[in-house]
Amino acid sequence: MPLRTVTSRLFPMTAAVLVSLSLAACGSGMSLTQSKARGYEISEDAVAQIRVGQSAALVTAVLGSPQVTNSFATETAWYYLGEKVQQTAFGMELSKERTLLVVYFDKKNKVVDTERLGVKDGKSFSIESRRTPSYGQDRTFLESIISSI
Q: Where are the domains of the chain?
């Protein structure tokens, strides 16, 4: 068989293999954004299992241990926070959904109430950008070296 005939038959097959491999690489997680979950996955089924009068041990068995606990005079609150984030390839993160589940207990460690909060239930506030003045002078590194000489 002449070399030219073998080459002409292998070229279309080689091209087809290369095209299929490059297309397969496009769908293998090389996208510019990824969806991630942080904290607790708070499902509706788990929340439906928590009822008034249940013990703290049962709540721990269903939801796991809380991220934060807060004790008031006669009540205790357990906080479970779950967040879904979309992260870009450049490291920027955008919060898509945030859910806070609060379980309130009385002094006998029995469930009194549950509350589910989202981003729309929160209040946004602006952070003060003014600086507190300090005594002395603001100097750069070079200015402080020159002044010490």
A: 39-121
pLDDT at 29: 54
CATH of 39-121, one of 3.90.105.10, 3.30.70.980, 3.40.50.2300, 3.30.1450.10: 3.30.1450.10
Residue 90 DSSP one-character state: T
Contact partners, residue 39, CB within 8 Å, separation at least 6:
67, 80, 81, 82, 83
- CA dist 85 and 34 (Å) reads 8
Q: Where are the alpha helices (DSSP H) in the chain?
A: 3-26, 44-49, 56-63, 141-148
Per-residue model confidence (pLDDT) at position 110: 94
pLDDT along the chain (149 residues), means of 10: 61 70 57 80 87 92 89 86 85 82 91 88 73 73 85
Name 84's Cβ contacts closer than 8 Å, sequence gap at least 6.
Answer: 35, 36, 37, 38, 95, 96, 97, 98
Residue type, 144: S
Closest CA to 77 of 66, 62, 64: 66
